[in-house]
Design goal:
363 residues; alpha+beta; conserved putative lor/sdh protein from methanococcus maripaludis s2 fold; Elongation Factor Tu (Ef-tu), domain 3; OB fold (Dihydrolipoamide Acetyltransferase, E2P); 3 domains; 6-stranded antiparallel barrel; 4-stranded antiparallel β-sheet; 3 helices; 25% helix; rod-shaped
Length: 363
């Protein structure tokens, strides 16, 4: 039986088969790259064309209040630091802190012994001068003394009387008195202490009248006027506001701090206490029909208006700017909707859609 002969692949046939395989691989790779490129392009197109989710709020009418900020301290309207005008030991103290006193009441008595002795000596000298003047006057009337002697005796009497009265008046300097009726806020005097000239021993005040002394920047003082209202806030009473009015503005400012002082009245029944620090908003003007938008809608002096499903950048002029709301004086109408917290990459004309659950006009 003849042996069966199997076909043998020639080198040319092997080469042709491998080439066909490589061409098929390149074709699939090309197709895959085209598909990836088309997918990327579609994704980019979708990213560019899909609506950007935003939250909207409507411009509305409301009251805009133009204010000047100032910081201040609550204090008594009438208060005095009482210091002696002479240096002497304190003999006795007659009042306590918190005590009410009348005008002219003695608060403390200084040791006036040396001055009392001086006053008695000068009064004795005045008595001698008075007796001498009477004797000389009688002699002059009887013709036994010259007119010059009589005039000299009278002159010496006047000088002695003046010195004695002055010494007696100076005794009052050793009695520390209340200049007006009020309450003793502080007592810095103890018997035996040495009272020094100009060193306060007592602080008294009229307790029923309080005011605020506030420092106003010199750039704003020209906008203020006496009688304008003010709104007061204090960290001691969070969430509360207290009404006040401008009583006076000091005519001269502090060139170092570049501030002027404004005095503000307070309700007599206020719960604010003397010594508390406060923040004051001094009202310059109120505009009840202002156009207001949420401050969150502002970015670089413009707002983004929602119109026909697209974002439109709108330059606006601003008035009073607050933490929550800002006044728009030009460039926006009541009822127009603006985008809150506009993204930094938001483009003019970009498509937008209201976020689910966020009603247009909210904010």
């Amino acid at each position: 039986m003849a042996a069966e002969t199997l076909p043998i692949a020639t080198p040319a046939a092997v080469t042709t088969t491998a080439g066909r395989r490589r061409r098929r691989q390149r074709t699939w790779v090309s197709i895959f790259l085209v598909v990836v490129a088309l997918a990327a392009a579609a994704s980019a197109a979708w990213a560019l064309l899909r609506p950007l989710p935003v939250t909207l709020a409507a411009a509305a009418r409301g009251e805009a209040v133009d204010t000047v900020y100032a910081s201040g301290v609550v204090e008594y309207v009438r208060q005095a630091r009482i210091a002696p005008v002479v240096t002497a030991p304190i003999r006795k103290v007659l009042v306590e802190e918190g005590q009410s006193v009348a005008a002219g009441q003695t608060l403390a008595q200084l040791d006036d012994g040396p001055q009392e002795a001086t006053a008695l000596q000068l009064e004795a000298q005045a008595d001698l001068a008075r007796a001498n003047a009477r004797r000389t006057g009688r002699l002059y009337a009887a013709g036994f003394a010259a007119r010059a002697a009589d005039e000299d005796a009278r002159s010496q009497l006047d000088a002695a009387d003046h010195a004695a009265k002055s010494a007696r008046v100076r005794l009052e300097d050793y009695r520390i008195q209340a200049p007006f009726a009020g309450r003793v806020l502080r007592r810095e005097a103890e018997p035996g202490d040495l009272a020094a000239v100009g060193q306060p021993l007592f602080v008294i005040a009229v307790p029923d009248a309080l005011r605020i002394t506030a420092d106003v920047d010199e750039r704003d003082v020209g906008r203020l006027a006496v009688g304008r209202e003010a709104v007061i806030r204090s960290d001691a009473f969070p969430g509360q506001v207290f009404p006040a009015r401008i009583l006076e503005i000091t005519p001269q400012g502090d060139s170092t701090g570049r501030v002027f002082r404004a005095r503000l009245s307070l309700d007599p029944a206020t719960v604010l206490k003397p010594g508390m620090t406060v923040e004051a908003n001094l009202v310059i003007a109120r505009r009840p029909d202002a156009i207001l938008v949420p401050t969150r809608a502002l970015r670089e002096g413009a707002v983004w208006v929602a119109r026909d499903g697209h974002a439109q950048r709108r330059a606006v002029q601003l008035g009073v700017q607050g933490v929550d709301r800002t006044e728009v004086t030009q460039g926006l109408a009541v009822g127009e909707t603006v985008i809150l917290d506009p993204p930094a990459d938001l483009k003019d004309g970009a498509r937008i859609a209201v976020r689910p659950g966020k009603a247009a006009g909210g904010g």
